[in-house]
Write a structure and sequence with these properties.
Length: 168
């Protein structure tokens, strides 16, 4: 082999290695950016889910209270240290209660005959909420506050049309 051919072959080999090195760096950088994008997407989806549960839980409570807003049909009571929103209604001559409360990280709902046997674990899990508080304000409003695991908090104040105190 001649000197010129060896140098040409050497130049060609250096060029090939350089191109492969650049392609390799591009592939590694692309995978790194894809991984970052996946993490950002996961965080956005998780935050949206938590905020959805937060807002929807309050909207759900407002709807349920408005549906049952009759005299002496909506009130708060305490059961085993937990505030329970009681919604009473008459169906086919019998009285029933829907109990809405926060227990074990979830807003729960339980439907039963009026003054029937009840335990906090009976309710159906409706929304995953970190903290949930219901209270009556001095002006007779029902104030509901919910917080998710991310620390976001929303509040809702409801004025009852039946115009009476909600605390029993």
């Amino acid at each position: 082999m001649e000197q010129g051919e060896k140098q040409e072959r050497s130049t060609w080999l250096v060029s090939l290695v350089s191109i492969l090195f650049i392609i390799g760096i591009f592939a590694v950088a692309s995978l790194f950016l894809i991984n970052i994008g996946v993490q950002v997407y996961r965080n956005v989806v998780t935050a949206n889910d938590e905020n959805f549960d937060l807002r929807t839980s309050l909207s759900y409570i407002a709807t349920r209270v408005r549906q049952n807003d009759r005299e002496n049909a909506v009130y708060l009571k305490e059961h085993e240290g937990v505030q329970v929103l009681v919604l009473e209604e008459e169906l086919d001559g019998a009285w029933y209660q829907t109990l809405i409360y926060h227990y074990d990280g979830y807003v729960r709902e339980h439907f039963m005959e009026k003054d029937g046997y009840f335990e906090l674990s009976f309710g159906i899990e409706t929304f995953e909420i970190a903290e949930f508080c219901m209270e009556e304000t001095a002006d007779g409003m029902l104030c509901v506050t919910a917080s998710n695991r991310a620390g976001a908090s929303e509040s809702l104040s409801l004025g009852l049309r039946s115009d009476r105190s909600v605390t029993e």
